[in-house]
Design a protein that fits this description.
Strands 1, 2, 3, 4, 5, 6, 9 and 10 form an 8-stranded mixed sheet that branches. The chain has a two-stranded antiparallel ribbon with strand order 7-8. The protein is of the alpha+beta class. It is built from 2 helices and 10 strands, in the order αββββαββββββ. It has a domain of 110 residues: STM4215-like (2-Layer Sandwich).
Length: 162
């Protein structure tokens, strides 16, 4: 799974959970009308020091052996709610992560590991306070980035019993 795949999965999950428009941060174009949530991928980190295991694939016709370390990765998302009652938009997320059934749209590849408190962070725009809220969501999953590490060479030979 790529970082973009994980980011898109979080956008879809939050859209289904909150019922408002959810976008990736820094998309071009005007902001959506009404209430919405913006999701920003802020950090990725390896959870364990070493890979859990390795996948090997030797089916390449060139003789190369592709190896993919299975790494448990944690992605941190900063979610910002805009519009009326932004803290109320994010509140269901805290409850949803407590129920395994609510994770099903992300399973089996991703598991929500943790979420932060919801922060009230209004912003002064156009000479008025605009209500906003923010929270962090931590998601875990496995990555399998493969690399060719060895080449199995083939050579023909003939035996002559003379």
């Amino acid at each position: 799974m790529t970082d973009d795949d994980v980011h898109s999965a979080m956008v879809r999950w939050l859209r289904g959970l909150t019922g408002v428009t959810v976008i990736k941060s820094h998309q071009s174009g005007p902001a959506p009308a009404g209430s919405y949530v913006s999701v920003n991928l802020t950090t990725t980190r390896q959870v364990r020091e070493w890979a859990q295991s390795f996948d090997y694939d030797a089916e390449d016709t060139s003789g190369a052996v592709a190896t993919s370390p299975l790494l448990e990765i944690e992605w941190q998302f900063s979610c910002h709610a805009y519009g009326e009652e932004p803290m109320g938009i994010l509140r269901p997320v805290r409850s949803a992560i407590q129920l395994a059934q609510m994770h099903e749209p992300l399973l089996p590849d991703l598991v929500i590991h943790e979420c932060s408190q919801i922060r009230n962070v209004p912003d002064w725009l156009n000479e008025r306070w605009e209500p906003r809220a923010q929270m962090d969501i931590f998601v875990r999953g496995l990555t399998r980035d493969g690399f060719d590490i060895d080449v199995i060479e083939q050579a023909r030979f003939d035996l002559d019993r003379g």
